[in-house]
Amino acid sequence: MSDSIVFYYNPMSRARIVHWMLEELGVPYEMRLVNLEKGEQKKPEFLAVNPMGKIPAIVHRGVVVTETAAICAYLADAFPQAGLAPALDDPQRGTYFRWLFFAAGCVEPAVLDRLFSRPPIERRMAVGYGSYEDTVNTLEKAVTPGPYILGERFSAADVYIASQIGYGFLTKGLEPRPTLQAYLARCTERPACKRFTAEAERIAAEMKANG
Ligand SMILES: N[C@@H](CCC(=O)N[C@@H](CS)C(=O)NCC(=O)O)C(=O)O
């Protein structure tokens, strides 16, 4: 069984979050570029990895992991030496999972709904994130006072949450609240974030040049 990580990737996608995570871990990985514009994600070879036809996906020790937040949590546990997840017996693990799942299950759909101007929600109680306002107010509280979601300790949850905030700002699905801007700035000043961003830009330019 191989211990190397195969990473299905495109620089213009949620795979950027996993890219950041891998750079934080500092472990070797093999990138397999998936050209979304050419529809490679819907070809049989990739559907055999993820029947959803979506990236990111990783294969590690013979197991496929999909869903960006799950990949972040999995990698943090698989490489505990990087210290990106509280240990099993650490009470902070509850806080860590709470906000990681909140970002995936509430922040992402709330921001996307606002971005795509989906119709007003008639049945808020049945919608997991309730309302955009409640979600973003709660997110602000979670990152306050910081500096990170677990206080002084940076974790995989910050990689995911900061990425969702960054995407929200970029697309204007999320309004630029100062608390969130400050949190994002703290997270993205990390060397691993700068490293992955430079590499993602390089790969994106190369893909564009090659058509
Ligand atoms: N729930 C998934 C969403 C993955 C997803 O939607 N990926 C997009 C790129 S950001 C994709 O692969 N889209 C290609 C397609 O649907 O054809 C996750 O969090 O990883």
Walk me through what this model shows.
With 211 residues, the protein is an alpha+beta fold. It folds into two domains: 5-83, Glutaredoxin, CATH 3.40.30; 92-192, Glutathione S-transferase Yfyf (Class Pi), Chain A, domain 2. The chain is built from eight helices and four strands; from the N terminus they run E-H-E-H-E-E-H-H-H-H-H-H. The chain has helices at residues 15-25, 44-47, 68-78, 92-115, 132-142, 156-171, 178-188, 191-209; strands at 5-9, 29-33, 57-60, 63-66. It has a four-stranded mixed beta sheet, covered by helices on one side. Helix 1 (15-25) runs antiparallel to helix 6 (156-171), helix 4 runs antiparallel to helix 5 and helix 4 (92-115) packs parallel to helix 6. The longest helix is centred in the middle third of the chain and has 24 residues, at 92-115. The radius of gyration is 17 Å and the shape is globular. The model has no long low-confidence stretch (mean pLDDT 95). It binds glutathione. The site of glutathione has 10 residues, from loops. The site of glutathione (GSH) has 10 residues, from loops.
- DSSP helical segment count: 8
Q: Give the ligands present.
A: glutathione
Give the number of domains: 2
Radius of gyration: 17 Å
Name the CATH class of the largest domain: Mainly Alpha
Distance between the termini: 36 Å
Spatial order of strands in the largest sheet: 2-1-3-4
Structural class: alpha+beta
Topology as a string of helices (H) and strands (E): EHEHEEHHHHHH
Quick check: average pLDDT?
95
Biggest pleated-sheet summary: 4 strands, mixed
* CATH T-level topology of the largest domain: Glutathione S-transferase Yfyf (Class Pi), Chain A, domain 2
Quick one: how many beta strands?
4
Taking pLDDT < 50 over at least 5 consecutive residues as the criterion, the unreliable ranges are: none
Strand content: 5-15%
Helix amount: 40-55%
